[in-house]
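Proteins fold reproducibly. Take a sample protein:
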Amino acid sequence: MTTISRWFGDRGVPRAIKVLLWLIVGFNIALLAWTLLSSFRDSRSLWTNPLGASGLNLGGYSRAWQAADFAGAFVSTLIVVVASTAVLMLLATPASYVLARSARRSAAPLVTYFAAGLALPVQAVLIPYQALSQNLSQFMQDWVTGWWDDRISLVICNVAVSMPFTVFVLTGYFRSLPSELEEAAALDGASPAQTFRKIMVQVARPGLTMVIVLNVIGLWNEFLLASVILRDPTQFTLPAALNQLNSTMQYTSDWGGLFAGVTILVAPMVILFFWFGRKIMESMTLGVTK
């Protein structure tokens, strides 16, 4: 009875949840470690001893890099992620600040609309975005520039999809900052634009860093939009190239090469999150407690 109450009594529920969370964390770490180990093995050793460490080599990375043109996909991913994040932050940061500090009655409903956008899955807008991308490409090629890069369309769609989350989070963060900073800047003769650019953006740097990192991770792993918008294989991002690699490797049974491709895609974002993980948690806690 004592053991049961310890786990399921008043204090047992938090302890049981903590144990469950640690089990989930342990499972994910073990899965990540197994994927990394499997990327250094050949297909035969994987089949004969899936959990072993025999037959370690770097051949899978070479085969994956060449089979799916990961070099070009890596460059395309960097271009799309950097451009999408830059445009997103340039638009969302001032919009969030205005919504957070505005005294107009329309500000609160606008924030609510952005929050509602978080509930809209990308699958619901996949076909409209594909049609928009094709029409934009056709219009630019026929009437404006004579050429078009579908990665520009992907950047536009990425910004539209990521905007609700970014504005919602940054609005809450700007609201947590003390208004005395703006009052002091106004007394010193600073204009609202100078106050925003030179003071508020600097003070909100932890929150901006958190949003940038989370968006970079999401955009780096984005697959659905890239798979329907990018039609030229030479413009594929890493998730689209990995899907192409999967189609190739499953017929050749080169599972070591496939695991190497997964590692190439996942490893940079895992390293990025571990590097900024503590700052992200501190920024999220700061925005909630203030």
Q: What stands out?
A: The radius of gyration is 24 Å. Residues 255-289 form the longest helix (35 residues). The domain at 69-289 is CATH 1.10.3720.10 (MetI-like fold). The chain has a mean pLDDT of 83.
